[in-house]
Amino acid sequence: MSVLLKILSIYFLFETVTSDPINRHMKIDGDFDDWKNVPSYSDPEDNMEGTVYDVSPWFPSFKFPDCHDGDSLDTSTVPKHIYNPNVNIVELKVAHDNSSLYIYCRVIDGGVIGKTSVGPSEFNKNNPSESSAGRFYIMTAINIDHNATTGCWLHDGGYHPTAPGFDGNIEIEFYNGSFNQNYFVDHGANNDDETNYLKQQNKENHFVIRPATHEYFTQYIYWNHQPTANETKRCLEGPYQLPGSTKTNYICFTKDKAPGPFNGVISYARSVKGNELELRAPFQALLLNSQTGRSTLELGMTVNISLSLETSEEYSVPQDWSSDTTATIQYTLSNDSA
Ligand SMILES: *[C@@H]1O[C@H](CO)[C@@H](O)[C@H](O)[C@H]1NC(C)=O
Ligand SMILES: *[C@@H]1O[C@H](CO)[C@@H](O)[C@H](O)[C@H]1NC(C)=O
Ligand SMILES: *[C@@H]1O[C@H](CO)[C@@H](O)[C@H](O)[C@H]1NC(C)=O
Ligand SMILES: *[C@@H]1O[C@H](CO)[C@@H](O)[C@H](O)[C@H]1NC(C)=O
Ligand SMILES: *[C@@H]1O[C@H](CO)[C@@H](O)[C@H](O)[C@H]1NC(C)=O
What we know:
Layout: H1 3-17, E1 20-22, E2 41-42, E3 53-56, E4 59-65, E5 89-96, E6 100-107, E7 135-143, E8 168-175, E9 178-186, H2 192-203, E10 206-207, E11 218-223, H3 229-234, E12 237-241, E13 250-253, E14 267-270, E15 276-282, E16 288-289, E17 302-311, E18 322-325, E19 329-337
Parallel strand pairs: 1-19, 10-16
Antiparallel strand pairs: 2-5, 3-4, 5-6, 6-15, 7-8, 7-17, 8-9, 9-11, 11-13, 12-13, 14-15, 17-18, 17-19
Keywords: Signal
Signal peptide: 1-19
C-alpha cells in the first residue's frame, strides 16, 4: 500500500468511528450557552404555502410536506400540509453526560414550543371558534439497540420522514394551557397480551425491546423519589415502587391527557421567546434491558434518534393536527471527552 493510501485509509477509519464526546457541563436552565459546541442538525423551514418537502432515505421516492397531518400512517398516501409555527422544527442537537441524554430543539421565530389553548373540551370542528383544551407533544424516539427489526416504524404513528426500529420514546405533554406530564414509552408489543407483559416487565424495572407495532406500548412516568401524595392520588395505574438496591424509584402507567401535572424525572426549560427548548432524560428511567439485565441506555452505545413535535388543531392552518419530524440521526454515547 502506498503511503498516501495508508494515510487515506486511516483517515477514513477515524471518519467512520467518530463518536459523540461526553459533555459534562450541561444544565437545564433555559440558557443555551452550554450547547454552543454541540453539533447541530437542521430541519427544513416550512412555510404557509406548503412548498417545503421532505423525504426519508428509506422511501426516497415518497415526498411530503415538512409540517403535515397526524394520520397518514403509510408511505404511499401523501400527508396533507398542515402549517403550525409551534412545531416547525429548524434545529436539533443531542448531547449526553455520564447519566443522562440531552435534547435541544428550536422552531422557527414566532413559534412557541408547548403552546396550548385552554378550554372545557377537545377542539370541535363543527364549532371551531369555541375555546378548546389543546395538546402539544415533544417526542424523542430512540432506536436503542440500533437494530431496525425491533421496535416500530415512525410512519406507523403518522410521523414522517420515517425510519425503522424505534424501541422507546422520551415525551413531554402539554395540555389545556400548561405542562401536564413527562413519561417514557416502551414500544415492545403487538397486541394486548404483549402489552400486559410489558407492564409486568416495566414494574420489575425491565424495558422490553422486540419487534413491535406502533399501536401497542406502555407509557410510564418515572420518579427517582416517592411521588407526592397528590400525584399518587391522581396516578391512573400505580405508582409502583421498582425493585433494586435503593428502592427509591417509582413508575406510574399513564396515558394522554392524564390528570396531571405529574413531575416525573424528565426536566426541561424553554427560552424566553419560547422557540427553543432543552430537556434531560436520565438513562436510569429507561430501566434495565429485559434481555441483558444491563442499563437499557448506557455509555458506549450507538443509537438512532428522531425528534417530533406534534400539536392539536387550534393554532394550525388549516385547523388539524400538525407534526414535524427531524431526519433520523445516529448518535454514539461516547465515554471520551471532546
Ligand atoms: C459522572 O460525572 C460527574 C460529574 O462530572 C462525576 O462527579 C461522577 O463521578 C461521574 N460518575 C461516574 C460513574 O463516572
Ligand atoms: C382547562 O382549564 C380550564 C381553566 O382552568 C378549566 O375550566 C377546563 O375545565 C379545563 N379543561 C379540561 C379539558 O380539563
Ligand atoms: C441509523 O441512522 C442512520 C442515519 O440516518 C442510518 O444511515 C442508519 O441506517 C440507521 N440505522 C438503523 C439501524 O436504522
Ligand atoms: C435484530 O433483532 C432481531 C429480532 O429480535 C433478531 O432476530 C436479530 O438477530 C437482531 N440483529 C442483530 C444484529 O442483533
Ligand atoms: C393537587 O394538585 C392539583 C393540580 O396541581 C391542585 O389543583 C390541587 O390543589 C392539589 N391538591 C392538594 C391537596 O395539594
